[in-house]
């Protein structure tokens, strides 16, 4: 299944409390549950003003629908063409 990196511009994201991040996560999981197993949230990285999310989904439209239903921004969605890590260098 294709993998996507979603950039969400959320001013002050890095200052969200653990409880606020929990609520955001619960909202996302609730939407995913309704959408079915075709779309999966892998994990996210929180920075000062953005959240970068990794999703498995059959297409970009499904990622956009998740953002719409959850009330999340999806400022950019990029399909991953390859994954590399230190092992790649060997």
TrEMBL record:
Q: Which InterPro entries match?
A: SCO4226 (IPR042557), SCO4226-like (IPR025336)
Taxonomy, superkingdom: Bacteria
Q: Can you say what this protein is called?
A: DUF4242 domain-containing protein
